[in-house]
Amino acid sequence: MKKSIVVGLAAALCVSGGVGVEASARDYISIVGSSTVYPFATTVAEQFGKTTRFKTPKIESTGSGGGLKLFCSGIGTAHPDIANASRRIKKSEYEQCLENGVKEIVEVKIGYDGIVLANSKNAAQMDIERKDLFLALAKSVPDPKNEGKFIDNPYQTWKDVNPALPAVKIEVLGPPPTSGTRDAFVELVMDEGCAAFPSIEAVKSTDKDMHKSICRTIREDGAYIEAGENDNLIVQKLNVNPDAYGIFGFSFLDQNTDRIQGSKIEGKSPTFEEIAAGAYPVSRPLYFYVKKAHIGTIPGMEEYLAEFTSDKAWGEEGYLTDKGLIPMPDDERLRFTDDVKSLRPLALE
Amino acid sequence: MPIPGHSRKDALPMQDVESSAPSSVRTIDIINRKLNKRYRAEKRFKRLGLAAILSSLLFLALLFISIASQGYSAFVQTYILLDIHFSRDVFDVGNLAGADYNGLVRKSLQSLFPEVRGRQEKRMLNGLISSGASFQLQKMVMSDTSIIGSTRSVWVPADDDVDMLMKGRIDRSAPEAERRLKDVQLGWIDGLRGDHRLQKKFNMIFFTGGDSREPELAGILGATMGSMYTLIVTLLLSFPVGVASAIYLEEFAPRNKWIDLIEVNINNLAAVPSIVFGLLGLAVFLNFFGLPRSAPLVGGLVLTLMTLPTIIIASRVSIQSVPPSIREAALGVGASKMQTVFHHVMPLALPGMLTGTIIGMARALGESAPLLMIGMVAFIVDPPGGFLEPATVLPVQIYLWADSPERAFVERTSAAIIVLLAFLMVMNAAAVFLRSKFERRW
Predict the structure, then answer these.
(1) ipTM beyond 0.90?
(2) Which end of chain B is more exposed for a tag (fewer CB within 10 A), N or C?
(3) Contact: A258, B213; criterion CB under 8 Å
(4) Secondary structure element (H or E) that encloses residue B429, with its range
(5) Residue A107's beta-bridge partner residues?
(6) Same domain, yes or no, for B255 and B387?
(7) Distance separating alpha carbons of residues B367 and B250, to the nearest angstrom
C-alpha cells in the first residue's frame, strides 16, 4: 500500500523530469569556464540581466579546462553557449570541438589579468627578476659550482639566490597545479626565468622533455606552499606572516592595497597603469569563446556579446576595471569589437 | 631492561602470597593495596575524557566566535538618503524601464555636492552609491507611476567600500594611495554623515536578494530557495524509499547471503565520499537521462543517493529496537504480517526513522561537493521558481563568496554560514525533540 505510493511518487518525479527536458528550449544563456574570468563574466551577466528583457545568464565556475571540455561536447541546448578561459583554447580542445560538431567558434579576448607576487605591508617591498624567482622556486637548478649539472634547489633564503635580496627564508604561498593561475605563472615567470640560463637552454637542444621538466617543476620541499584555490586565504595568511609571499591575480591585490603590496618584477610594479601599458611582465590575456550555432536559438546571445564588448563594460573606464580587469589597448579592443560584430569564426592553424 | 623490571613488580604480591601462610593474607588486603592505584586510574580517565570534551567545545566556540564576529556586521548595511526628483521629462510613458535612473541618482548627488566639478571627481562621487540604486528607483516607478513628477527621499544602498569604511574594516589612517576610498571621498562621506544622510540599517537585501557581484546587493534568497527545492526532492525520494527498504530488510527479507551482501553494500555506501555521488549523478542523470544541468531536481536525486544509506541504517536500528513481544502479541491475536508491521511496529519505530531522516537531510543541506559535478556551482541571480530552473544551494553560495576578491564578501560569507548553521541547528534540534518526545524505551 505504502510502497505503491512510493513507487508512484518516484515514477511521477521521473516523468515530470523527462517531460521538462523535452519542453526546455532554454531561455537563458549558459556559460561555463575559468574561475579567473568568473568575476568579470558575472558582472556583465548581472548588468545584462538587469538592463535587458532577457534572463540573467547562468555562469558556472568550472576552470578553463573543464569549461572548454563541456563547451566542446556538442551543439544544442544541453550544452553551454559560452566558455570562459584564462588561456587561449588549445589545439587539442579545438579539434575536440570540431569532432563534436561545434564548427564555428568566435574568440573574444576581454582584457588582461596581472599575476602578482605580494607580501604584507609590514615588510619591505621586494624588487626581483624573473631569473631569481626561477632560482627561488624551481625544483632543480643549475649547480653554481659546476655549469651544466643540475642539483636539487639548495637556496633557503632570498639572499642565497641573489645578495641584493633580503635575508628572509623563502616562503611562497601559491596556487595548486590544477589552477589556471599556476599555469600562467609557470609560463610567464618560470619559463622566462629559465631562458636566462644558458646551461638550461643548452639542454633544450638535446632533451626537450628534460628542459621542460627543469623549467616547469616547482620545488616541493616546503618553500612553495600550495594554498588551494582560495586567494582570499593567501591574502589573510600574508597579513599574519610578514615573511611570506603570495602569488595570485591582480584583482585581489587591487582590493587589499591597504594590507599587502605587490613586489616589483624586473623593476615594474604591478599597478593598473603598468599592467595596462604592458610594462609589467607577468600578465596574461583572458578570453571567452562563443558557439556561433547558438546565436539566434538562445535568446539574448547577441545582446550579451554587445554588453560585454561595450565601452561601458570593458573600456578604459568601464565597470569591469572596477573589478580588476586590465583593459586592452584601444586598437586591440576595436579589433575584437569588430570580430564580435561580424562573428568572425576562430581558425586555429 | 624495562621488561624484567616490569614483571618483577607484578610478581611481588604473588611471592608474598606464597612465602607467608595462606590464611594470614586476606584478599581484601590485596585489594586495599591496589585500591588507590585503581582510583587514580579512574580519575585519570575521567579527567582525560573531560579534557577531550572541553577541547572540542573550545574549538567549537572558537569557530562560532570567529564566524559570528566576522559575520554579524553583514546584517546591517550602510544606506544613503537621497532626494530624488522623478522629473517628468526623464520618463517616456511607453518605456518606463528604459528611463535613465542612473541619471536621477547622479543629479541628486550633484545637488548635494554642487562644488564637485570635472569628470574624474564626479565619477568618484557617483562611486559612493551602489549601482543597485538605479534598479531600486526603477522598481519604485514601475510599481507606482504616480510618483513621477514628485520628489521623494529615498534610502539607497551605499557602495561596498563606503559600507566597509562605516564598519571600520577600512583603515582611514592609511596613506591615500593605499586606500580604495580617496581623501576627497572621505570628506563627502563625513559630510553626508553630518547631515544624517548616511546610516546603517538592517540589511534586508541580504535576505531578499539573489546572488550579485556587488556585495551590497548580494543576498541568500536564491541559494535558500535552491536548497529548499533540492531538499524537497531529496526528502520525497529518500524517506519513502529508505523506510521501505529498512522495513523489507528487517521484517520481510529472508536470511540468506544475498541479503547479507545488500547489507554490506548499504553500509559501504554510507562511507563513500560524497563527490563520488556527484560523478555518478553526472554520468547517469545528466548524460544518460539528459536532465538539465544545475537543476535542483538533479541535485535532489544525487543527494538522495547520498542520504539513503543513512536513513536505511537509522530506520533499521529503530525497527530493531521495537521488542519482539509486540510483534508476537499482534501475530497472536491474528494480525497478518503486513498489519503487524504497519499497525504496530511502524508507529513505534517512526520517531527513530524521522530522527535519522532529519539528520540525513541536515547532511544533505550542508553538502556542496557532489553538486559541483552537476553544475550547481554557478552564478545565478534570479531565485529559482521550480525544480528544473537553474539553482545553487547555500553551501555553494558560501564557497563562491569566500572566493570573491571584494572585502565586503568576507562578512557576507560569514553571515551566510551563520544562516546555514541556524538551519542545521533547527533541524538537529527537531531531531532531538522528536526523539525525546515520541521515542519509547523498553
Answers:
(1) no
(2) N
(3) no
(4) helix B408-438
(5) A289
(6) yes
(7) 29
